[in-house]
Design goal:
The chain is α/β, with parallel strands linked by helices. The chain is built from eleven helices and 15 strands. Strands 3, 4, 5, 6, 7, 14 and 15 form a seven-stranded mixed sheet that branches. A six-stranded parallel sheet has the order 10-9-8-11-12-13, sandwiched between helices. A two-stranded antiparallel sheet has the order 1-2. The radius of gyration is 20 Å and the shape is globular.
Length: 336
């Protein structure tokens, strides 16, 4: 089988393709013929050898998100069968309940090998079945970005119809949050540096858009759009560099779902206290959340927004496209 590895993660150019034997599933394991994988911003940090947590193992197979077909099962496998279409969990052992350190240690494409290979072994507990209406490419976008957005809006105090959600940018998490919020009957305000991207966000259900290059103090624009009240939820993917404005754009008692680390800096906690905000850290989600999300995807027949699909041989080009930040939605690598 063909498999990509980082012999030593030191940049996109160090990603290398190898030919290796196809593995055999042991007890409780399944062998999956991978059909597609997708990229997240985290994968750029992994490629550079600068993950947010821990260190990068040598010879790592990258990427956490992928979908494929079960082609063989080991003894005692009961959750799935040969022929099932599945996606892997980001954290292989987080099945439900609270996130624990041992779950983080099972993160694909970082702590352990990922899915950028023609065949991958999974524990039978570390996968979910794909919604029937989704292709493998669409299913490959779900494990990190979609589940992170779902956890943000429904993992704590859940989003209610008629509430207002602010999404920052048009990357994978933000676009999924837009789609989930729109399907729930919520109003969505999107920000971007591009009027073209804002137009695309409106096509997907955003009610209003704010260009943060035209309006650097974009929080005041959001307040104006909400009559001075502020939004109920912010899907905050920017990090400390945007968090202060997200807080100012949120209503008293609202929620800021802190996801991203795209910008650095320090924050002043006083406005959080004075506005009685809930600031909740989000780190993907559990299998239980994944299955709930898939039920919603199936009910509404929601389809992930795919910006571009790259062939397996051009995996480096997919990374370069991710690095350019020119995309709206998800970037996919078709494996076979």
């Amino acid at each position: 089988m063909r498999v990509y590895r980082f012999p030593k993660a030191a940049g996109i150019e160090t990603l290398a393709l190898f030919e290796e034997p196809t593995p055999t599933p042991a007890r409780g394991q399944i062998l999956v013929r991978m059909r597609a994988a997708s990229l997240n911003y985290r994968d750029l940090n992994v490629a550079a050898g600068k993950p947010a947590r821990g260190s990068i193992p040598e010879n790592l197979i990258p990427l956490s998100d992928g979908a494929g077909e079960v082609v063989a099962v080991g003894p005692d496998v009961t959750r799935v069968a040969v022929g099932d279409r599945i996606a892997g969990l980001f954290m292989q052992t987080w099945l439900g309940g609270a996130l624990e350190p041992e779950h983080v240690a099972s993160s694909r494409g970082g702590a352990i090998d990922g899915v950028l290979a023609e065949y991958v072994l999974f524990d039978q507990d570390g996968v979910v079945k794909l919604p029937d209406h989704l292709s493998y490419a669409e299913g490959a976008t779900l494990p990190c970005a979609a589940l992170t957005a779902w956890n943000a809006l429904y993992g704590g105090r859940p989003l209610q119809p008629g509430e207002t959600v602010l999404v920052l940018g048009t990357g994978g998490v933000s676009i999924f949050a837009l789609q989930f919020a729109h399907a729930a009957g919520a109003r969505v305000i999107a920000t971007s540096s591009s009027d073209e991207k804002l137009a695309r966000a409106r096509e997907l259900g955003a009610t209003e858009g704010v260009n943060y290059r035209t309006h650097p103090e974009w929080d005041t624009q959001v307040l104006a759009l909400t009559g001075g009240r502020g939004v109920d939820h912010v899907v905050e993917v920017g990090g400390a560099g945007t968090l202060s404005r997200s807080i100012e754009a949120t209503r008293h008692g609202g929620q800021v779902h802190l996801i991203g680390v795209l910008t650095g800096g320090e924050i002043n906690p006083t406005p959080i206290l004075r506005r009685t905000l809930m600031v909740r850290g989000i780190y993907v989600g559990s299998r239980e959340m994944f299955m709930a999300m898939n039920r919603a995807l199936s009910l509404h027949e929601l389809r992930p927004v795919i910006d571009r699909v790259f062939p397996f041989a051009d995996a480096r080009a997919a990374y370069d496209h991710m690095k350019s930040r020119a995309h709206v939605g998800k970037i996919v690598i078709e494996i076979g």
